[in-house]
Structure formats: structure tokens, C-alpha cells
Amino acid sequence: MRIAIILVATLLATCSKRSDNKPIQSVEIKKNKITDILEDDKRLFTYVYDEKDLPIEVISYNEQTNTIESKSNYNYQNGKFNYVSQGNVKDVDYTQSVLNYLYQAKDLSTKGIKIEHPEIVSSEVNDLATILTVGKNYDDFKKDSVVNGNEKTIIYKNFNKKIRFNPSYITLFIPEGEIVKDYNLVIKDSLPIKETFLLENNQSLRREYFYDKNRIKKITYISSDPTNKLQREFIYKN
Fold this sequence. Notes:
- The protein is an alpha+beta fold.
- The protein contains 3 helices and 14 strands.
- It has one domain (31-237).
- Helix content is 21%, strand content 43%.
- Strands 1, 2, 3, 4, 5, 6, 7, 8, 9, 10, 11, 12, 13 and 14 form a 14-stranded antiparallel β-sheet that branches.
- The chain starts with a helix and ends with a strand.
- α2 (92-110) crosses α3.
């Protein structure tokens, strides 16, 4: 046994040096990056990323027990998103939702709004793309924009539009049949900072975005009804 230990130690010492007696650089094993998504302090999702910072897996949790409910995998072809699968079976609906928010995120970038990792904020990406598209397609209301340095405010006055936010967290605050009377969007350094919705019934919703080095760390929804609010948090690891 002692001889075996000596042999192993000798082998390790030999392998730790090159022929020129310089130590071999140890190989760093890269761990996957993950992002946890919390809603009102409860973890609902975890996104797993590869070395290219592309999402490869999303895990959903039971809100009450914090146990895993399902896992879905992102599949790529030649570096481009192809489809989402569960248990090696293509999830058609999930795949379409990913294609939708990827298209919407690209559309927002043409409007000067750039969001890292749209997969974790697909609901907000959908809302922004939808309302700005409606704003672009109609001319029966007052449009304005105020620029102050690197900050821009988009103003839709007398907007008076019924907008179908779906799928969206915003439906927790604005019913599908409700009219959005006025809308304001503040953008700073190409990032959405704050949205304000004034409804026809004089209720309002304020949605604010908080960042750390351009990575979104928190989104808050605050209604004029103080009991109706939501906080989404994004915890980055590795």
C-alpha cells in the first residue's frame, strides 16, 4: 500500500511539470451561469446558461414548496435558437413564445431600447413592444418626447387605447377591456427605467426597472391601489 501511495505521488509530481520543468497550468472548469427569478421573494424560475451566455435550460418551481415542477431545454442549430424541448419532445407553444420575444426584443432595439437576456423579462418585452407598435400605428392622439442628456421620455397623451397585454404580468393590474388613457416611458442609456399607465377609470400603474451594470436586478409594479403590487427580482450566480 505504501509503495502504491509513493507511486501515485510520483506520478502526480511528474504530471504537474512539463519537460522544461515549468508547472503545467491547471485547467479551469467553467461552471454554468444561472439566474434565479423571484416574485415577491418566492423563487419561480431558474435559467441556466452555457459558456456563450445562451440559455440552455429553464427550471420552474412550485411557489409554495420551492420544489422543481418542470425543466425545459433550449436547443440551438449553428448558434441560433431552434426550439424548446421537454423530455426530448419539442414544446411547440414554448418554442413559439421564445420566437415571439426574440423578435420583439430585436424590434425594440431598432427603437433604441436594448435589453440583455430578454428571456427573463419576456413579459415586459412583450408589453413594451406591443404598446410602442400600437403607438406607431395610430395617429389619433398626441405624441411627444422629451430628451434630457442620455434620458428620453416618450409621452402618449389622450392615448385612449384598449391594448391586449397577453401573456403578461400587467393583466394583474390592467384588465383586458380597460382603456389606457395616457402612457409615459422613460429610457436612459437605451434601458427602460419607468413606465406610467393612466387608465380611463383614473386608476394608474407604475412599473420601474432597476439595474446593476446594465443587468436588470429588479422590476416593481405599483398600482394606485396600494394593496395591488408586485416585485420581481433577478439573482445572478457564477
